[in-house]
Structure of Ribosomal RNA large subunit methyltransferase H:
Amino acid sequence: MIKVICVGTIKERYFKEAAEEYKKRLSRWTKIEEIEIKEEDENKYRNVEMLLKKEAEKILKHIKEGQYVVVFDINGTQLSSEEFAELLDRKVSKGEEIVFVIGGSNGLADAIKKRANLLISFSKLTFPHQLFRILVYEQIYRGFTIIKGIKYHK
């Protein structure tokens, strides 16, 4: 099973449709669960660290002992699509649950990064949150097509 925990919501219909399409495609190979964590209001907190701590508490409630946690972070390791597919294959073939965590506009608290088994960076570039979620789903889908030998990845 794959769980995707996201801070923030998708607002635009076309991003929602893209996410739903990838989740539908993935459903033939794995169960996929998406959890949206409401992004905290910056005006309620004295500083960003307190805001991130509150979001981290909400995220950690959805992560169980024994789950393999992958956090997306600009300072993480960059993987090729084939390496990402190998990671998926190793975990899914053993029946392990993988949890992908996507931070909000303020990033993620250190507590989440410390809980991660792996930090992954897609790029040094900054992406809009909604678009990044689609990129994550696309890479998970691409990974499964590589694993299954389906012509999609070039």
